[in-house]
Design goal:
alpha/beta; 4-stranded parallel sheet; 7-stranded mixed sheet
Length: 833
């Protein structure tokens, strides 16, 4: 893959670096290694909080203090960047936040001192409006309001601590707790649970009434500090309404990670980048740089099936220490994943930490030494590569846990204190399957889980995956409650910084539980998709009539458990297999030009029985570009069986497919037009199903758009497109993100004259294959997809494109919009009708 500039990282430094390059007229790509470090920080933008590591009084005027810092420490990263650049960066951040729909305030002329969740004053430069009411420069009394059952914020502790350092009069700071409505007494809940609930109008009003009643005797000037849980998405409206209903100023306080404030910030800034044309490559940690003649020519990404090479004119390593894969920690050394340089050594692990949690930690200050141009440098100060630059926590001496760059211990490059060889948690293999012990319980997976965001009864992938796996015994019954609510979207694995195979633990536990309890008729039918579809195809007119008849659907719901409102796919009598066989027989009588490339098309059950035309378009496009297409005999990929708790059946299908695909001649690649089928071949056959010989098959498997873009980069894609005057939205399916290849469909579509493309990334559509078909999960699936439906309706485009067949069904059902595969637009541009 070739790009203008590649930015590697997932925290604020990566986001701002990408935006800065975009504003400068460049076209960067953002390589997102997984977890965003924003989930663990305070969610304000801090520039200089204290003059040095021993200072107890916060900086009042950051601009003036930075000038003094630069004069005293010319090797400091701020000195290398310059005050002018800091001023421009602050302005850019504020402007961008406003463009993205946030309300923030602040600047370099004054730090705002705010109370933390423990009641300690903290200086910040730029802050969201929802926190501004906590400004300790004001004299208004403060009441910290917590919630019974919510353990991440203790209002009494916050009040006690703040009263010792700030309280102006007895009683000017106090804490109270209220019981939130709709939660049973004794119930424990998370920030996500509360934030989701606050978006419900009735819940918010009842909480406001209880708060107002509890503080009625405290006068008019009191202000209320609450944990930052005032909504997951619509924070401005939720905050304003709640403040109005309480009748007093209300301000939010970030709590323990994962911070809802930070989650909002990352999600919205990431989406804004995508909306303005920036591509993200998900779930592909960068692990090696190829350097020669003083330049980096490419970096290698770990992705399912094989490495992905990214070539760019320049690279920005905007990493946030170990949170997003910046460093590899071993027992005695720490090394970087790009140049494989040892950045720090320690004789014993205790040298990396200090006993006090609140002091600057040696391990947090490890990173790259840098040149005056912010390039990574060797021990002599020479750049490791002229076209590689460093930003954020990867710079030596910077401690993001303290939110500013003033707590440096070693100036230009740190003092080499940091932590490859004895116990590498990240290796040089294309993919690694981290053991369950690698889970650090950071809960990042829970924050991105669409099911956990939509219902409080789901305990989340962290608990159901690695946390429960530690206690599972193959000789005991599987009794983990809530396993069936996992939709299989794999976003938890996309996000996990430790690359733990969360889904695999859940799927294996589901399979074991189904073995013990027995499978329902419905799950048996949905798992045998190819058998069911073959029957539907043979009886297509009758099957299609029954699937749309209200009486039949009611009976199907009562007897089988398929929700009556869920549209079911139409079957076609002429399958893709038979169409392709007829076409080959006709072509045998013609003299055709010899094609240099040959691919094997893994068409899948959907194309074969439900959307033959998509397969026809794939064949047409490939042949138009000089690629010969063969169709080997194949079985269902197995994913319907996997998601319906039948790994044994999926393995049977997979073994058959691997056996057949392994006999393909060398040089014949495998093409899939379904993201889920392709992911099974690339990754799940070898990892989840443990099928011998699956890895060579996965290494030669490509998504159709991925393959076409590869042709384009080789100069072999036919670019004689017909202009199309059309406006389309693109929704990236969850499983596409797991491929670690970015969005090749959007790159292809932007080559077509007249195509106006917009991305809509509002998370999972909710259907997750057969998940949303089931009667007990239909409403949940529609709730998960509601944000996407709203965005599609508001956009008003001609159609919505999605690489996944069930995503297209869900969008048509939930948003009432026409949906198709991106291949359809390409085929139209090639004149295929």
């Amino acid at each position: 893959m070739r790009f203008d500039i590649a930015v590697v990282g997932s925290g604020l430094a990566a986001l701002v670096a990408t935006r800065s390059l975009q504003k400068a007229g460049r076209q960067p790509v953002l390589i997102w290694p997984g977890l965003s470090s924003l989930y663990f920080v305070y969610a304000t933008i801090d520039v200089l909080g204290y003059r040095d590591a021993t200072a107890t009084e916060p900086v009042d005027n950051p601009r003036a203090a930075i000038g003094e810092l630069i004069a005293a420490h010319p090797d400091h990263v701020y000195a290398r960047a310059g005050l002018e650049a800091l001023t421009a960066g602050t302005a850019l951040a504020l402007d961008w936040l406003r463009e993205a729909g946030f309300s923030w305030r602040g600047g370099l002329d004054r730090n705002v001192v705010l109370p933390t969740a423990t009641g300690t004053p903290k200086p910040s430069c730029l802050i969201p409006d929802s926190m501004a009411g906590g400004d300790l420069g004001r004299d208004d009394p403060v009441i910290f309001c917590g919630f019974e059952g919510y353990e991440d914020f203790v209002p009494e502790l916050a009040a006690s601590n703040l009263s010792r350092t700030w309280g102006h009069a007895p009683g000017s700071v106090r804490g109270l707790r209220i019981r939130p409505p709709r939660f049973a007494p004794g119930r424990l809940f998370t920030s996500i649970d509360l934030a989701r609930s606050f978006e419900d109008v009735a819940f918010r009003r009842e909480v406001a009434d209880r708060v107002r009643t509890s503080i009625a005797t405290n006068g008019d000037r009191v202000r209320i500090g609450v944990p930052a849980v005032l909504g997951l998405t619509h924070v401005a409206d939720t905050h304003a309404r709640f403040e109005e209903e309480v009748g007093h100023p209300v301000f939010e306080i970030p709590t323990l990670p994962p911070s809802v404030l930070a989650l909002r910030l990352f999600d919205r800034l990431r989406k804004h980048l995508q909306e303005t044309g920036i591509e993200l490559i998900w779930a592909a940690p960068a692990h090696a740089a190829e350097v020669s003649d003083g330049r980096c020519h490419r970096i290698q990404l770990k992705s399912p099936g094989r490495e992905q090479a990214v070539e760019a004119r320049a690279y920005v390593l905007a990493l946030e220490d170990t949170a997003d894969g910046a460093m590899r920690a071993g027992v005695h050394t720490i090394q970087d994943p790009f140049f494989h340089r040892v950045l720090a050594r320690s004789d014993v692990p205790t040298e990396r930490t200090l006993e006090s949690l609140f002091k600057p930690q040696p391990f947090a200050q490890v990173g790259y030494r840098i040149t005056d141009r912010l390039q990574p440098a060797d021990d002599d100060g020479r750049p490791l590569a002229d076209n590689v630059f460093v930003a954020g926590g990867a710079i030596a001496g910077y401690d993001p846990r303290h939110g500013d760059c003033n707590r440096l211990s070693g100036g230009a490059g740190g003092d080499g204190r940091m932590i490859s060889d004895d116990l590498d948690l990240i290796t040089d293999t294309v993919e690694e399957q981290a053991p369950v012990e690698a889970c650090t319980k950071c809960t990042a997976c829970n924050t991105v889980c669409p099911v956990a965001r939509s219902t409080e009864i789901f305990r989340g992938p962290k608990y159901l995956g690695p946390e429960s796996e530690r206690y599972r015994d193959q000789h005991e019954a599987t009794v983990t409650a809530g396993l069936d609510l996992c939709s299989g979207c794999k976003l938890c694995e996309v996000t996990c910084p430790s690359q733990v195979s969360i889904q695999e633990y859940i799927r294996r536990a589901q399979n074991k539980g189904a073995r013990e309890k027995g499978r329902t008729l419905r799950d048996w039918m949905l798992g045998h998709t190819r058998l069911l579809s073959a029957f539907g195809s043979m009886t297509a007119p009758l099957a299609n009539f029954g699937n749309r008849n209200p009486v039949v659907r009611l009976a199907m719901e009562k007897l089988v458990g398929i929700h009556r409102k869920r549209p079911l796919p139409r079957y076609q009598w002429l399958t893709f297999e038979r169409w392709f066989k007829r076409r080959r027989q006709q072509a045998a009588t013609l003299t055709l030009p010899r094609k240099e490339r040959t691919v094997a098309y893994f068409y899948g059950c959907w194309v074969n029985y439900n959307e033959r035309r998509l397969g026809e378009m794939v064949v047409h496009i490939l042949e138009r570009n000089g690629v010969n297409v063969i169709v080997p005999k194949q079985q269902c990929c197995g994913i319907p069986a996997v998601v319906n708790s039948n790994i044994d059946l999926a393995r049977t299908y997979g073994v058959e497919n691997v056996r057949r695909l392994s006999t393909l001649p060398a040089g014949v690649d495998i093409i899939a037009s379904s993201t889920s089928c392709g992911l099974m071949l690339k990754h799940d056959y070898s990892h989840l199903l443990d099928i011998p010989g699956a890895e060579p098959v996965g290494s030669r498997t490509y998504d159709i758009c991925e393959y076409l873009w590869m042709l384009h980069e080789a100069g072999d894609l036919d670019l004689t497109f017909e202009p199309l005057d059309t406006r389309v939205l693109y929704h990236a399916p969850c499983h596409l993100k797991s491929h670690g290849m970015g969005y090749p469909a959007t790159r292809l579509l932007r080559l077509i004259p007249g195509v106006h493309l917009e991305e809509v990334d509002e998370g999972c559509c909710g259907i997750s294959g057969t998940f949303g078909v089931k009667v007990e999960k239909y409403d949940l699936s529609m709730k998960i997809g509601s944000r996407l439906f709203e965005a599609v309706k508001a956009a008003g485009s001609d159609s919505v494109l999605a690489d996944c067949e069930t995503c297209r069904m869900q969008v048509e059902h939930g948003a009432g919009a026409r949906s198709s595969h991106p291949v359809e637009i390409l085929a139209r541009a090639y004149g295929y009708r």
